[in-house]
Specification:
Distance between the termini: 24 Å
CATH architecture: Orthogonal Bundle
Strand order of the largest sheet: 1-3-2
Radius of gyration: 14 Å
Strand content: 5-15%
Structural class: alpha+beta
Number of domains: 1
Largest sheet: 3 strands, antiparallel
CATH superfamily: Winged helix-like DNA-binding domain superfamily/Winged helix DNA-binding domain
Number of strands: 3
CATH topology: Arc Repressor Mutant, subunit A
Helix content: 40-55%
CATH class: Mainly Alpha
């Protein structure tokens, strides 16, 4: 779950969820995250190594999509998280940090 501990990686996963199974080119993440290509590539590499995201090369471009079962893995990890258990009702004291992110944000 360490791979999801970064807000940029959470936004990447959110963007991939919104793509509904379609692969997204690495170049499309840059304006969404307002990060350099190198930084975006680093975050994607962490997600790939964690088994949450798959990479596909098409010509000179890399495309990314959620790995099959990635959501089940994430949900299982979240259900067993001591941090979430400590929240009691499941509500964070920082509700603005848990939100659905859109490209406009």
């Amino acid at each position: 779950m360490k791979a999801l501990a970064d807000r940029h990686r959470l936004r990447i996963v959110n963007m991939l969820l919104r793509a509904e199974g379609e692969a997204i080119c690495v170049c499309e993440f840059e304006p969404f995250l307002d990060l350099s290509q190198g930084t975006v590539s680093h975050h994607l590499k962490v997600l790939v190594e964690a088994g949450l995201v798959e990479r596909e090369t098409r010509g000179t471009r890399s495309y990314f999509s959620l790995a099959p079962g990635a959501l089940r893995f994430g949900a299982r990890g979240l259900r067993s998280s001591p941090r979430l258990d400590a929240l009691g009702s499941g509500r964070s004291q920082y509700p603005d940090r848990i939100q659905c992110l859109s490209p406009e944000q």
